[in-house]
Design goal:
Blueprint lengths: L1 E4 L4 E5 L18 E5 L2 E4 L5 E6 L2 E6 L8 E7 L9 E6 L1 H9 L5 H9 L4 H9 L10 H13 L6 E8 L9 E6 L2 E6 L5 E6 L2 E8 L3 E2 L3 E5 L3 E6 L1 E2 L10 E6 L12 E8 L14 E4 L5 E7 L4 E6 L2 E7 L7 E3 L9
Parallel strand pairs: 1-8, 9-16, 18-24
Antiparallel strand pairs: 2-6, 3-4, 3-7, 5-6, 7-8, 9-12, 10-11, 10-13, 13-15, 14-17, 18-21, 19-20, 19-22, 22-23
Helix pairs in contact: 1-2
Length: about 350
Amino acid sequence: MQVLKQSTAATILVGPVLDADGAAYTAAVIGDFNVTKNGSTAAMASAATATHDHNGMYLIALTTGNTDTLGRLDISMNKATYGMTNHRYEVLTANQFDALVTNGTVTPASIQSGLATSSGVTSAFAEIKGAGWSSGTDTLEEIADAIAAINVGSGTGARTVTVTVNDGTTALQNATVRMTSGAETYTALTNVSGVAVFNLDDATWVVSITRNGYSFAGTTLVVDGTETVTYSMSIVTINASSVNKVTGYWTVLDENGNAAASVVVTIKARQPTRTSSGVIHDAGERTATSNGAGLVQFTNMLPGWRYAVVANDEYVADFVVPADAVTSVELGSIVARLP
């Protein structure tokens, strides 16, 4: 399926237009064509033009009024005794179109930007994450956490557990709080007051909290009645990289989802960007160790380059540093058996 940019003029090739005997028809005018937007059919915009090009094929100059509606767009023939196969297009937002076509590079940020401006998606994300949703700052990972929180639920136990999350002074909204005991895991997002409420049974629960830009070392909570607790997260401090390079970082979690300290992570460069030239990059391995909050970071990574995670001298997984990263970037999540 071909794509068009919303509210942008474009010239497309359609046809062939054939008469009842199957011969090419070369005298069609713009009024002989219809445009259908998401199932609603109308005549072409008056400013549009149709010019015969060759063998019954026509160049149609679409106007901004023809491409103003996101979604399916069909061009069909509306002239008695003449026929043409319908031509279908998908109208995308400017961000989506530029990421896929104009720039030719799809990155997490460009996808997020396109999604955030798509019809209905912004309101859906706002409903999931509440008034704090921002298409400019919230990551897709945070949206996934929000959806997970809705799907998993906050428990059906007999005890009410109220968790407040802050940065030491200010309440943190949209922090993902996970409570785990054995095979049971419940997840909730903090509200504007930094509060998440669970209904849990008596047990010792492992507490993990995640929020973009912050870290939490993890702890346990003994539930044997109504509980009210407050946990403070730490702002992630990222080491600076050289000019035109970025610092990539992860939070290392153990098998129970708690921040894991003193874990050695090894990476190495594997592949440059398609447009890179004039560089020979050492293929040797680099290591870094996670701190008490599970944070592990690597400075001077190259945007758009592909790297590999290595454990016990064996390849684990590839990842790509986002091409649009500027100073620091939270790297894509992976699963690995680390030493």
